[in-house]
């Protein structure tokens, strides 16, 4: 058990994770050697980061000034034990367990994580990077995105609770990057994003659109109501299907929109336009050929594809593509972010498609995530009322801030691609 839990609870009110609900979090791993190594490497890396790290004895580390983000380590023994044994997974778990906290402001956690994300590729000394393949855990075989495995992976995230997502998403229930122009509402920015990807796919009156990844129906509703399109939308989330169909009926477009429980690999037919918004991230590298071949197979002659994808630099994708991370373990099992070169390689190898248009929205995703996190934090009591606990609150706040940090420092980006057939 943590030797610092009473002090942590008394000073900051961070409850200890429930042993039965969060196995492993209430009892940090034990490895004095790894903990000492992690302690040394962490403080060495902190010297080069724009943040301050404070310890319970009052000592301060890091390369930031008085106005820089502050990371308060409350239980150093537990923190360095988790970091030493479980690496990046342990770093996230230590926040879930309350081993460290940040300033009480909406930007505190995102600021700390941005400092780390800005030096992600160089935090570990080059001489130690070669040990990564032995140190980093590999993705479990049971999280492979087979047809059955993909349904299980999606269920772990998207079937948590429609009410949970409604507490932090905008009125359109859109769970992907918005596209902002000036000071405007999140909903208006989300509708602009939807219009942007519909434009890339050339969706107009009487277009028959295939949407791969329904979400909660916002794109299908807009395509049908505003453009007069017919939409067949595929999902493998039972919770999303139920609410999407309810929303389609409420919008009065159930005669033009059909929501189908079907994997993209099982889809048949030809469509004037195919659209997939931030779904490729859940496909997995092994199944990219199947995914892109399906896009090509399902697109009618002369049709266009609108694809929105979170992407990362190609060298970072290659370096991390086999790693099992905190995000895989707790948020998105089985996923992998592609790079633009990886997408181009897949198109060339498995399709007759090419990238005809491209629009990048990276910083817009940082703004989107910040607004989601603000709403989530503001509605914590309602989240608890749904049956989730305090550890879940910290896990999801960390997830949203972690992603925001990646986009803030441009370690990640999001792109809208218009795909067309080669001449």
Structure description:
The chain has 423 residues and is of the alpha/beta class. The chain has two domains: 5-135, no CATH class; 141-421, Rossmann fold (3-Layer(aba) Sandwich). It has 18 helices and eleven strands. Helix 12 (288-298) links the parallel strand 8 (271-277) and strand 9 (299-311). The longest helix has 21 residues, at 76-96. The termini are far apart.
Key traits:
Rossmann fold; seven-stranded mixed beta sheet; 423 residues; globular; alpha/beta; disordered N terminus; 2 domains; four-stranded mixed beta sheet
Shape: globular
Q: Unreliable stretches, pLDDT < 50, 5 or more residues? A: 1-12
* Helical content (DSSP H or I, runs of 4+): 40-55%
CATH architecture of the largest domain: 3-Layer(aba) Sandwich
What is the CA-atom radius of gyration, in angstroms? 22 Å
List the helices and strands and how they pair.
Elements: H1 5-12, H2 32-46, E1 52-54, E2 60-61, E3 70-73, H3 76-96, E4 100-102, H4 108-117, H5 126-129, H6 132-135, H7 147-158, H8 162-166, H9 186-200, E5 208-212, H10 218-227, E6 230-235, H11 238-250, E7 257-261, E8 271-277, H12 288-298, E9 299-311, H13 314-320, H14 326-330, H15 340-350, E10 353-360, H16 362-378, H17 380-385, H18 390-408, E11 413-421
Parallel strand pairs: 1-3, 5-6, 5-8, 6-7, 8-9
Antiparallel strand pairs: 1-2, 3-4, 9-11, 10-11
């Amino acid at each position: 058990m943590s030797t610092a839990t009473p002090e942590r609870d008394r000073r900051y009110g961070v409850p200890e994770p429930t042993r039965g609900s969060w196995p492993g979090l209430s009892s940090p791993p034990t490895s004095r050697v790894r903990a000492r190594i992690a302690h040394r490497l962490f403080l060495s890396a902190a010297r080069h980061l724009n943040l301050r790290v404070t310890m319970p004895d009052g000592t301060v580390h890091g390369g930031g000034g008085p106005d820089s983000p502050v990371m308060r380590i409350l239980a150093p023994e537990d923190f360095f034990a988790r970091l030493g044994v479980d690496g990046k997974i342990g770093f996230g778990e230590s926040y879930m367990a309350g081993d460290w906290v940040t300033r009480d402001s909406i930007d505190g956690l995102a600021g700390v994580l941005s400092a780390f994300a800005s030096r992600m590729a160089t935090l570990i000394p080059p001489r130690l990077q070669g040990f990564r393949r032995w140190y980093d855990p590999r993705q479990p075989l049971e999280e492979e995105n087979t047809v059955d495995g993909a349904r299980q992976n999606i269920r772990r995230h998207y079937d948590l609770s429609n009410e949970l997502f409604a507490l932090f998403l905008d009125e359109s229930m859109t769970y992907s990057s918005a596209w902002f122009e000036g000071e405007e509402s999140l909903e208006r920015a989300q509708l602009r994003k939807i219009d942007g990807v519909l434009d890339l796919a050339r969706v107009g009156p009487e277009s028959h659109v295939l949407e791969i990844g329904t979400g909660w129906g916002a794109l299908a509703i807009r395509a049908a109501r505003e453009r007069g399109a017919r939409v067949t939308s595929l999902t493998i989330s039972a919770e999303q299907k139920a609410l999407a169909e309810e929303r389609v009926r409420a919008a009065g477009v159930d005669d033009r929109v059909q929501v189908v429980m079907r994997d993209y690999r099982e889809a048949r037919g030809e469509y004037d336009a195919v659209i997939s918004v931030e779904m490729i991230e859940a496909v997995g590298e092994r199944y990219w050929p199947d995914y892109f071949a399906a896009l090509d197979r399902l697109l009618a002659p002369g049709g266009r594809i609108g694809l929105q994808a979170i992407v990362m630099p190609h060298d970072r994708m290659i370096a991390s593509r086999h790693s099992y991370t905190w995000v895989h373990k707790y948020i998105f099992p089985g996923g992998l972010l592609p790079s633009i070169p990886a997408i181009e390689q897949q198109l060339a190898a498995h399709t007759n498609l090419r990238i005809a248009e491209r629009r990048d929205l990276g910083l817009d995703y940082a703004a989107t995530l910040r607004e989601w996190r603000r709403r989530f934090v503001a509605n914590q009591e309602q989240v608890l009322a749904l049956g989730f606990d305090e550890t879940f609150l910290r896990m999801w706040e960390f997830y949203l801030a972690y992603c925001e940090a990646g986009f803030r420092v441009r370690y990640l980006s999001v792109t809208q691609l218009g795909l067309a057939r080669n001449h």
